[in-house]
Amino acid sequence: MSLNWQEILGVSGARIQGGMVTDFGDSAAELVAAREATIVSPLAHLGLIECAGEDARTFLHNQLTSDVNHLASGSAQHSAWCTAKGRMLASFLLYRNGPDYRALLASDLLSTIQKRLQMFVLRSKLRVNDLSQDHAVIGVSGSLAETVLHHCGLPVPAKVLETCTYANGNTIRLDGTRLLIVVDTVAAAELWTKIAASAVPAGTPIWQWLDIMAGIPLITDATKEAFVPQMANFDKIDAVSFHKGCYPGQEVVARTQYLGKVKRHLYRLHTARQVTPGTAIYTRESAEQPCGMVANAAPAPGGGYDALAIIQESFVETDTLHFGVADGQIEAIEPVVL
Q: 209 vs 34, 84, 312, 337, CA distance in Å?
């Protein structure tokens, strides 16, 4: 998050820690607003990279799990980049910006992923740029999200994973009530002020909780190389194409799919204790060998924490899952069905 963007949010009462907006003074009220009202949240946990140049489409199609060749203008898609062993290095929300391709990913992976992608460019005619310092990412969620954007003069995509371009950036529809805005930093202050007049400002953890409720995991530095795409339901959100050519890890991903060897799946869980991405999950039957891992976690409106976790399915029904500490009991768990 750029210093200019931090200053803008600070004027609005944001409390910032480690480059993330924790809240705007009352995190509990903000969580309630996320369920019952319309909120606006600065998404500093997301970074933005761009692949620009005449070979950008071919390059990304040959590297990512999704079908980039058929990503139309005005559309977005979920995607991932894998190791040769089929483990996800990063997850992306990929979209077109004119002839170029932009991707939102975990900010703590941005520098590593940008440099690693650049290593594979070789003679291809493209540039991999970090746009995070020049752009802000804002999320708006709630029943009045569309109305708020219209009042600000922003275009609103009609369908899920459609995008619109306007003078200072892009809007992206995530689902029926959530929209993303990627805006030039120079225009961010005015836009934030307009949106915050109609929506409740909320810290980034509030948006992360909404992502957990939506069942869409985000790969971060703590979980890179931990999961194959099918474990995280990426095959169910069209983030994996099984009809395209080779990409890193393609053989492992395809074999996993066609042989039905996915033994770990995505679950949503609740616990009274604080957990973070990368937290290992154990069962009493196997106290030393983890049977799962937390992918994402955030404070829950009713107290405690909600999380997305990838867990070995044979242990889910044992009622003995825990986080390896005395008060680490998992209180509720359900499969994520998309």
A: 9, 31, 23, 17
